[in-house]
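Question (not urgent): is this output format expected?
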Amino acid sequence: MKFLITGGAGYIGSITNVYIQSQGHETIVFDSLINGHRESVGKTPLIIGDLCNKDEIDAVFQDERFDAVIHFAAFALAGESMERPYDYLRNNINGTLNLLESMRKYDCKTLIFSSTCAVYGFPRSLPVTEESPISPMSIYAQSKRSCEEIIDWYETLHGIKSAKLRYFNACGDMPDGSLGEDHAPETHIIPVALLAAIVGKPFSVFGKDYNTPDGTCIRDYIHVLDLADAHLKAVSSILKTKESLTVNLGVGKGYSNLEVLKAVEKVTGKTLNIQYKERRAGDPDAIYADNTKAKAILGWEPQYKTIESIIETAWAWHSKHPNGYKE
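Got this back:
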């Protein structure tokens, strides 16, 4: 099959791109390179463009035909979204709308959408199922939820089938250290902790009074290769059943911040200088997935089930590339 991958020069997109190619498929990457890295695309054809410019994405479909689109392209920092609401809503919603309109116009009927567990907000019960209440607590989360609803309308009106994949905390890197996470700024706990271990800087934990066993936040960490596998399985499911789907993608187990940091120390052999700071606004005590539906519908099973196995792959990347990609 042939795939268009929007945001394919980003963290999850670039690793999914390599994974899909390893399974014998053809890919083309469309990315603005605002946050992505040209180096991460390798030899894959790269079209530099902005989904908010409709003519640019139309031109891609004029020149190529795709069996499916995997849509990663988005601004994705919840905290930043509250400071830049217009930018996030315009980029994420308008970009998705333009993509859908091009798909409609050129008769591409399968979309895999990168959504988020943030649509659930502060969960009332755990684990979180797909039927849990939807309650976005940030502009970022709202933008993703709005995109989900727009995608549903494009199925109703134009027959575009979709998989809406609600990620929990994406993490990990290619086990051989060839591709990995490189954000500016970096906000995710595992890469920040690994880089702190490398350079000997203090690591800040925001809050130690959450309603959890050790007082720090609990999150569900899912490896990017397991996410990549789920994307490909979602395409197969849609083509086989002709049905859209919405599933949670998480390991189904939560780890606290302190448990993650202990695992970082174990994998690296280095001791972290942990400093506690005030809570950040908008952080729930705990959130982790019920992934039963994804397993049943997709025949999917996470391969990286422990936090240590995930961190080992992240260490393979960050120990070799402490400054990220070369460009």
